[in-house]
Structures are given as C-alpha cells and as structure tokens.
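Hi L.,

As promised, Long-chain fatty acid--CoA ligase:
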Amino acid sequence: MYTEQAWIYKRAALSPTKTALIDSNSGEEWSYETLTNHISKWMHYFQRQDYKKGDRVVILSQNRIELFAILFACGMKGLLYVPLNYRLSRSELTYILDDCQPVLIIHDEEHQSICNTWTEVDRLLVNTLFDDIALFEPNIHWEATDPWIIIYTGGTTGKPKGVVISFEAVNWNAINTIISWGLSDLDCTLNYMPMFHTGGLNALCIPILMCGGTVVTGSRFDAEEALIALNTYKTTLSLFVPTMYQAMLETEYIKTASFPTVRVFLSGGAPCPKNIYYQFEERGILFKEGYGLTEAGPNNFFIHPNDALKKKGSVGKCMQFNQVKVVNDFGEPCKINEVGELYIYGKHVFTKYWNNEIETTRTFDNGWLKTGDLAKCDEDGDYYIVGRKKEMIISGGENIYPQEVEQCLVLHPNIREAAVIGVKDEKWGECVTAFLTCKETKEFFETEIIQHCKKSLGSYKVPKKVFILQELPRTDVGKIDKKRLQELALCTQKK
C-alpha cells in the first residue's frame, strides 16, 4: 500500500493522534488516524460498487472535511476525483457531466434536489455512514503519471475545460511547496477557498497534510468570522483572494486584533491591489502575493514576506523544483524588465485537457506550459505578473496592461475596487475603460479620477471612459468577470 499514492497512510503512521482536519462550521475534528479510517471506508464502498480504474467520481458539495477522505480514497482506488462548482447553473453542470461521464455523484444535502434529476448516475450523500471495516490493500497498479483529479476551469472565455492532474503533479506541487516555503507539522491553515478550485485543494491543504500539519475548513465566507477563526485555531499561514481581504479590512475586528501565530497572510487567485498591501503594512501585519493556475500547481513562486514589503506586487523567485521563463512573441527569452508571456516547466504541471486534444496541443511548447499570463523579471531575478495576454489593451498602437492602470486607480482614497478593460473604438482601436466601486458618491468624480491617473500614468494609459457601479460582477471563484464588463460596455455604447 505504501506507494507514493498512499503517502497519507504513512503520514497517519507517523503521527496518528495529531489533528489533521477541523470543520469550523460543525467543530468536528479528525486525527490522521481517523482520516485514514474514513478513507478506507470510502475505498471499501468503491470496491463493492465494482468501479474500475479510470472511472470518474463527481463531487457537488460545500467545503467539508469528508471531501478529503473521498479525494484520497479515489486516488487509492484509481478513480478520478472531479469536484464541481456548485454555483453553476443546471445546464452548465449538465455540460460537465456529459463531458466527464461519471459513475457516481457524491453531494451534500443542499444539492440533493438537483442531483436527483440526474437519475442515470449513481448518487450518494457525502455524509453517508458506513459500517466499521478493516483496512485492506487496494490491489491497484499505479503509475506516477496516472490521473487523480479533474478540475474544470471557469469557462469565462468559452466552455469549461477539464484540467487533468496526475498523482505526480499533485505530489510534486506539495513537495515543492513544503521545501520552498518551509512548511512543517507545526503549520495550520484556515481554508475558505472552494474545494472545487485548485486553490482550495492544492495551494495549502494537501501540502500541509503531507507534512503533518492541520487544515481548518470553512464553508460560506464571512470576513469577521474568518478573522476570529485565524486566532481561535492558532493558524500560521492562510490563503485568501483579494476580494476576501478587502472585506476583512473593512471589519471592526481587524482594527484592534493581532495575529500572534500568523507568519504571513497570502493572497492569490487574482492580482492583489497595492492598497491592500499598504493597509496590512500600516497594521504591522506581514502580507505577500503568490501566483498559480489550475494547470500548474497552483504554487510556482516564493517570496519572503520582508522582500514583499520592499517589492509590492512581486511574486518572487520560482520554487526549488520547477522552472519558469518569460518569452517574447518570437519565442525568445525576454530581457530584464521586458514584458512577455510566462512559461512554466515541472512535474507539477497538468497532463492534458479532458477530451480536448486541440487545446492541449495549443497549451504546450516542447513540454513548457504557456500560461497566457504576461510577466517580467527584474535584476534580482524576482518576477512580476503584469496581466493576462488576452486582456492586454492596444490603444493607438501602444500596449497597455490593465493591471498597471488598476493599481493606480485603487490608490485613490475613495475607490474600493477597480477593473480596466479595452473596448473596441473606431479612433483608437481600443478605448481604455475603467469600472469602479466607490466608498462614497461624489459629484464629477469621473473627472477627478482621470486627473488622479494623469499624475502617475502616461496619457495613453489614462482611462477615456469611467463607469461607477454598486458592485463589480464576479466569476464563481471570486474573480472580477471582465467578460461581463465587456457586455456592460457594449450595452452602454448601443444606448
């Protein structure tokens, strides 16, 4: 049993009574021994159902600790674990089910009614109680490159794609993170990232379980509850997206709270506005940013918190067991501080897109993953993510990176959030267009914003149009939905 796929059993043998998982909603706690007992019960169920190696098991559930037992049990039995975004519509979920053709849907009570409509597939509640059973050998032959997880991308630019992630990719991401970030069995993380997202599985949870630490799961995010939980559970390192941090910084709790056990707050999932950096710095709280994607890791870089103070926005240097490079449009390495596309190489990179050979071929270049993200590297070898290649604005023949304009906008004291897009324009090719949410309503604020940008940006980068919204539209994982903003801009043009 003790292959690289079964490392969770070795971890339980090393520290059986150590707390592995805590559900912050129910208060339930599992030791590593308890976790492996639950894994064995799920393995036994899969065996009784006679599921075959390579079969897909779909999960439709809010975050809960039982999902880890199912995840590892799928791996031990050679089944593919497919967590679905429970915020999708029925038609969107049906598309994914048709694509991956699962043998079983495991769901929580909240999603039972929708799951009951898919009568052609076996269905089971996530909290099903099984009779006690003895441990047994799974009798499955694995290869390190065999698939373990399929995570479907958000599909903001088309139909969702199933990212196939192997045992090797999951494990090397964890090993790389433990070594590069210095994780240990003393670490504890609070995870509100949805577990249908790579950030909710692979960013910190699996690495911390591999090194014997503790994972605390949260379900529906509440900013003040999350901040209190960080201290209640004596957490050391946790990942939140920028929108979560924005909500945290607006709570009363953070104004007086200290976080004595927290080594650093980590931001990921989307570029982090610099005003969030400044607010953490004012409170004397260490804060840094990471970069990843479903197709790689998602952990790829490391920066020491002290360096992050000096180089706000940098993700640092690539981790120990992966490689990165920035290339220009001709596939040649970029010069220092020259912007190009970020390429990533390593055993933590995904295998393929499920049932999509064309997109798989487009995404690789001689084994290097083409991320579609723009980056640059400075004199010290530290990297900065500039933005998405597809989102780069070309206005009047000049390249404009929305993230640079957004970072300028959010430094205005009345702006809460900002999103910048390029909108087709007969004169300029594309028109720099800003969408904002504000702390208070002010007359002629659009003019004030343009003057604010002119102080820091070249004239061609300054937004030519400014729209103020109550809320910015978001994708199901909390990112600003720029496709929706394009639609809003188009509707405005037609009026």
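The two ends are 65 Å apart (CA to CA).

Thanks again for sending the construct details.

K.
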